[in-house]
Amino acid sequence: MKTIQETVETIIQRTPFIEEAMQDKLINVSSLARIIQPEVEQALGKEVKTGAIMMSINRMSPMEILKIRKNIKSLSLNLGDFIVRSDLFDQTYKNSSTLYKHISLIFAKIGDNRESFFTVSQGIFETNIVISANLKSEIDEIFKDEELINSMSKLASITIKLPKTNLEQSGIYYFILKQLAWANIPVQEVISTTHEITLVVKEKDINKTFSILIDLKKT
C-alpha cells in the first residue's frame, strides 16, 4: 500500500513545472498541499490532514532535479547555431498508398536547393509537410488528389543544432520547450533529427521565440 509520501511525490512529479517552481521557492507549500489534498485522499482511500501532506512535500529531495537541471544548463551553453526561416506553410495529409509517391516527386524536384524549406514527418495515420511559401502552389498541384486534413500559413521556424551529448541527457527537449510554454508561445510543430530540433511557430511569435532561445544559450 502506498504511503502519503509516495503518493505526494507521484502527484507532484507528474505535474508540469511544479517541481522546479518548488525548488525556486515560487510555490506556497501550504497552498499546494490543500490543492492536491483531494487527489491524495482519493489515491489512498482515506482522509489525510493538510499538515501531513505539507510534511511530505517538504521532505522531497531536490537533489535529482537539481542534478538534471545543472546538466541541461551545461548542455545549453553548447547549443550550436540557430537557423531561422520565415514565410512557411504547414499542411497535413491523410496517409494513402499514393501519398508517398507524391512526396518522392517533391524531393526529386527540390534536389539540393537550400533556398527552400521542406520537411516531411510521417505518422501512422497522417503525414505532415512544412514548406516554404514559394513551393505551395507546386505542393497543392501534386497533392490535389490527396485528402488535406489541416493547413496553416504565416509560420516560421528555428532550427537548433544540438551537441552530440544530447543523446545521453534526459530532459533537453523539455528544457527548451518549457521556456516557450512559460511565455505562452504555442509550438505548431516539433521536427527533430539526431542532432537537430526545429520548432515551428507563428510568424508573430518568432522574434520572442528567438529571444528566449538566445537567452537560454547565454544563461
Write the H/E string, N to C. Answer: HHHHHEHEEHEHEEH
Percent in strands? 15-25%
Work out the radius of gyration. 22 Å
Strand order of the largest sheet: 2-3-1-4-6-5
Chain oligomer state: single chain
Description:
It comes from Lutimonas vermicola. This is Aspartate kinase. By secondary structure, the chain is an alpha+beta fold. It has helices at 4-13, 18-23, 29-44, 50-59, 63-76, 99-110, 136-142, 172-182, 206-218, and strands spanning 82-94, 118-122, 126-132, 148-161, 189-193, 196-202. The two termini are 43 Å apart.
Q: Strands, helices and their partners?
A:
Elements: H1 4-13, H2 18-23, H3 29-44, H4 50-59, H5 63-76, E1 82-94, H6 99-110, E2 118-122, E3 126-132, H7 136-142, E4 148-161, H8 172-182, E5 189-193, E6 196-202, H9 206-218
Antiparallel strand pairs: 1-3, 1-4, 2-3, 4-6, 5-6
How would you concisely characterize the structure shown here?
The chain has 219 residues and is of the alpha+beta class.
Descriptors for this entry?
single chain; 219 residues; alpha+beta; six-stranded antiparallel β-sheet; elongated
